[in-house]
Give the backbone structure.
Amino acid sequence: MNKYVVLSFIRRVGLIQIADYVRFLVNYAGTFRSRRAFHKRNPGVVLPPAYYLYETFNLNYESFYSKSRDTAQWLVSHIAAFEQFDNRKILEWGCGPGRVIRHLPGILPSSCQFYGTDYNAKYIEWCRKNLKNITFFENGPEPPLPFPDNFFDIIYSISVFTHLSLKSHYSWFDELERVAKDGGILFFTVHGEVFKEKLTDSEKKLFERGELVTKAGTKEGHRTFAAFQPPSFIRQLVKDHQILAHHPGVKENGIPRQDVWIVRITKKSG
Ligand SMILES: C[S@@+](CC[C@H](N)C(=O)[O-])C[C@H]1O[C@@H](n2cnc3c(N)ncnc32)[C@H](O)[C@@H]1O
């Protein structure tokens, strides 16, 4: 039987979070040596508790820290094609325990201001205690964000819509639009075509019809709640704005990567 059909069954009977936690414990035991070796090689690097890494990314200290510095550079180079980085207010919405944003103050000019938000209070508390030169706020599972209208030049969000319901796609997109300046940049990633292999046959049909597919039965926003976004769905979501780029995800070493969308927010006057 297909793995995704079995997971759908576990989800239907309400056991997906428990199964996921067991998976974490197995991972935790299996990475003992590599985690200890990372700390020996990098005694000055402060990392969040292991479960935070697992919940938001994966339990690999090297990827979480060193490879995510490359991810921060990758993010900057994508946005730099459309926007200068002098004196910019930059928000990461859904920053988790700071994997990417922690690197930005070291990469971008000191004239930029950095903000991170997440709906998980534990991550924000950890970020506030441990990461410098970034302002962190907790947001609710529903909008609003704690910022005035037209505040940010650049907003980015990595793998957050991938855990939201249909209703939240619309409410959060509207909220990001509200806090972005007219002409501001919105960069986000989603599960595009390359993730179709993770869908059951009936889910694939929905996806191919251009509908958002969600695997729910668990807390919205958690890693066990998954959403899959056909490109036509995203085009419809952002339809009042200018799409600057869409980079469909491909497989790297057999692992599917998320689609990248970069949008210029264009506000109607009046
Ligand atoms: C897969 S993790 C990605 C974390 C981070 N962006 C990264 O790339 O390392 C998804 C993140 O979205 C956050 N999240 C989910 N729903 C949210 C919401 N409504 N508002 C803000 N953050 C949310 C989760 O708490 C989690 O930190």
Notes: The radius of gyration is 19 Å. The longest strand covers residues 180-190. The chain has a mean pLDDT of 96.
